[in-house]
Amino acid sequence: MFKSLLRFVNSTPITSPNTPITTLKACTSIPLSAFSSSAVNDKPTVTFYHNTNSTLSHHLAKKLNYYQSKFNVEYKINQVPSFDDYRFLHLQCLQMHPNNGTIFQKIYGALHANLHELEMLEEGDYANKVEGVEFATPLIIDYSNSLLAMNDEDLDRIMANYTTCGIQNLKDVHDDSKPNYYDHDLTNKYGQRVVHPHIAEYADLF
User: pLDDT tens digit string along 139-170?
Assistant: First the structure.
């Protein structure tokens, strides 16, 4: 037993004072850019249906670009609103703010003008009705707050949720977003929709 122990001691290398001691490598640090990227991805998204033939639409695009640090903007150029966005407007926006109903009417009044009740179209029916339709109105959709915008005043209402700074309401741009028709029955129908009391109270401030 003693001989076995002696052989073990002799076979074990003795570390000299000058021999460097091997240490574990530190974990690779995560670059700060990774956190920055995550923060960008966490920003809310706003969709802008941009009409390149509209002076007002170009004006709103500039304002959105100015506020791009507040949210991500998804631009859809000269496109009819998708069925998913139509569905979102119908289910989430009409009861959120009275002005949403006005905007919805300006965009989709022709689609619902012959309906006794405001019913959401099926995807196939929606595709058939909007096929070949020229979408002439700029439209901004704020998904986080279920708000819509088609002019300066509407956009300022949206931006009130993202900034505490004063927002200048520009009036020097021609509002060419108004359609040639106006359906009073639809206006009354949208106006009768229930508005959450907190939202109505908030709207009175503007």
Answer: 999 999 999 999 999 999 999 999 865 444 44
In a domain, 8, yes or no: no
Residue 156 domain-assigned (yes or no):
yes
Q: Is residue 5 part of a domain?
A: no
- Domain assignment present for residue 34? The answer is no
d(CA 148, CA 190): 14
CA 137 to chain CA mean position, Å: 18
Strands (DSSP E) contained in 43-97 are 45-50, 72-77
Residue 111 has a CB neighbour count (10 Å cut-off) of 16
Q: Counting beta carbons within 10 angstroms of the beta carbon of residue 107, is it exposed (0 to 12), middle (13 to 18) or buried (19 or more)?
A: buried
Q: Number of structural domains, the chain?
A: 1
Question: Which residues pair with residue 50 across a beta bridge?
Answer: 77
CA distance 124 to 89: 17
139 closest CA partner among 98, 80, 97: 80
Residue 78, CA distances (Å) to 16, 57, 126, 150, 198 in order: 77, 11, 18, 15, 35
User: What's the domain range around 183?
Assistant: 42-203
State phi, psi for 139 to the nearest 5 degrees: -140, 130
As a whole number of angstroms, the distance between CA 157 and CA 101 comes to 15
In the predicted model, residues of the chain with pLDDT beneath 70 are 1-41, 113-117, 164-206
